[in-house]
Amino acid sequence: MPGVGLMGGTFNPIHLGHLYVAEEARVRLALDRVDFIPNQVPPHRQDVQEMAPARDRYAMVCMAVSGNPRFTCSPIELDRPEVSYTFDTVSALRREQPGRTFTFLAGADSLLGDWHRLDDLLGLLDSFVVLARPGSTRQDLEARLDGLGLSNRGKVRWLEIPGLQISATDIRARIRAGQAFRYLVSEPVYNHIRKMGLYLPLGPRSSEPA
Q1: What pLDDT does 73 receive?
Q2: Around Cβ 59, how many Cβ atoms within 10 Å?
Q3: 73 by DSSP, 3-state: which?
Q4: How far from the centroid of its chain's Cα atoms is residue 8's Cα?
Q5: CA-to-CA distance for 172 and 116, rounded, in angstroms?
Q6: What is the spatial order of strands in the sheet that 102-107 belongs to?
Q7: pLDDT per residue over 122-148, tens digit each?
Q8: For residues 74 and 37, is the Cβ–Cβ distance under 8 A?
Q9: What distance in Å separates the CA atoms of residue 118 and residue 106, rounded to the nearest whole number?
Q10: Looking at 16-25, 46-55, 80-89, 194-203, which range is the least confident one?
């Protein structure tokens, strides 16, 4: 079966940079599709107070990817009340889709952090593709991996993709400051953020049922 790319994260919010990088990786790695997996309770995040409700983030991801038949939005992590670990998600996907190969796509900055059962995760994947990000070099990544003693280190690949200089952190700051952000996200995502009042100083209005 053709390989599937997995792109996880908070997507707080999903923006055009995410879509561009995912499509470039899909084409260059000859992936059948890319599944976007917004998480429910992300590990190791210090900015949870700035997090839009999970259902809003999931809705925005679905809106953003709807125009590309090679992109899908997965709710697999939304029903977990506990912290979302990539190892658990990929394990579940392997059980649900035997015979599929999975390639995880992650920014270099994220791999420089702590990962739950990273070596076991690598063993479940066809490859773990590290996408170059400003401020993170391949030398940084290699130094980080050197100290982990990974038996599946060969699964880690580096992919240079000229990135769009867009960040979710900047988008949230722009919204709080009342600045323009319309063409940093897709139009449906822009409309949803404005409709729900997400990322405003007084806090978002959730689309989740009360």
Answers
A1: 97
A2: 20
A3: strand
A4: 3
A5: 28
A6: 71-73, 33-38, 4-9, 102-107, 127-131, 156-159
A7: 999 999 999 877 666 788 788 888 888
A8: yes
A9: 13
A10: 46-55
Which amino acid is residue 80, in one-letter code?
R
- Closest by alpha carbon to 26, among 71, 66, 61? 71
- Kindly report the CA angle at 134 between 133 and 138, in degrees rounded to 5? 60
Task: For residue 39, give the amino acid letter.
Answer: N
Q: Give CA–CA dist 163/154, Å, rounded.
A: 25
Distance CA 133, CA 72 (A): 23
Q: Which domains does the chain have, with CATH numbers?
A: 4-166 (3.40.50.620)
Q: What are phi and psi of 195, to 5 degrees?
A: -65, -45
pLDDT (0 to 100) of residue 78 = 87
Residue with tokens 């839009």: 52
pLDDT tens profile 82-104 = 788 899 999 999 999 998 999 99
**Model pLDDT, residue 44:** 60
b/e per residue, 105-143, with b = 16+ CB within 10 A? bbbbbbbbeebeebeebbebbbbbbbbbbeebeeeebee
Report the alpha-carbon distance of residue 148 to residue 21 in Å, rounded: 27
